[in-house]
Amino acid sequence: MQRWSPRNPLLAAVAGSILGLAFPVCECGSIPTARRLIAKGAALPAGIAFVLAAPVINPVVLAATFVAFGSWEMVAWRAGLTILFAVIVGLLLGTPRDPATVVLPAVSQGAHPDDHAHEHQWGAFHQILTHASAEFFEMGRYLIAGSLLAAALQTLVPQQALLALGSGPVLSVLVMIALAVVLSICSTVDAFVALALASTFSPGAILAFLVFGSMIDIKSTLLLTSTFRRRTVALMVLLCFQLTLLAGVALNVYLRSCRAVPSAQG
Fold it and tell me: So what's the pLDDT on residue 122?
């Protein structure tokens, strides 16, 4: 893993952002996978970019987005913005002087890549089961806690109250980002939920829902704290929010200006 991972931070971030094509996982699976990649020696920018981009940049989600909207343009916008944001965050947070300030000690002090190099075939199989069970109990508690919190918010917070706010170019994006966090829908099916809201919300808000919700929600935020330090997780959430808000508002303003030009000419 150390040999295959690019040492250049930009190349590492780009490679990590498209690695989801080989590992088709959602946001619940991307974090334990990145945890193992980093522990095995993958560069930090690659691990961070993979965590953020893998829930979208995989064949299942890309195909589901196309089936829902029937447009490769929406697929390109969603995939392009996700890769761009993942690379930016990976570069900003993944190039510290001391990696221990980014990831937890249990991750940064992962097993040496040659620890099991000379094991018998059954010994290697035993190690696979041991690692799988350890990850199951380590990550499962965060997933369950996040699911309970997401279910509580869906029950207690009226969705109609959020939907009523989705009119303006800025407010609609903020509402859809909040809705993505509250609902915490898996990235494999969120495109169909977004399609149901497409007639109510602006295109920038729908895109923000698809991009931000796949990178950051309640479950994934809790899962991130099992791999990264809390300060890193907070910065990750803040950066993703700012980038998504900026992109969504910019798209809404651009589309409004395009509509205004023909009206003025008419």
Answer: 64
pLDDT of residue 123: 75
Dihedral class, residue 181 (left if φ above 0, else alpha if ψ from -120 to 50, else beta): alpha
Could you give the maximum distance between any two Cα atoms of the chain, in Å?
77
* Percentage above 90 pLDDT, the chain: 42
Domain-embedded: residue 171: yes
- 137 alpha-carbon distance from chain centroid: 22
- C-alpha distance from residue 183 to each of 13, 78, 94, 116 (Å): 28, 19, 29, 42
pTM of the model: 0.82
Q: How many domains does one find in the chain?
A: 1
**pLDDT at residue number 149:** 62
Is 266 domain-assigned?
no
Using CA atoms, how far apart are residues 232 and 221, in angstroms rounded to an integer?
11
Encoding tokens for residue 206? Answer: 């729908």
Instruction: Return the structure tokens found at 113.
Output: 């890549």
3-state secondary structure (DSSP) of residue 226: coil
89 vs 52: CA distance, rounded Å: 9
Q: Is 230 exposed, middle or buried (0-12, 13-18, 19+ CB in 10 A)?
A: exposed
56: domain range? 9-96+124-258
CA angle 65, 69, 74 (to 5 degrees): 70
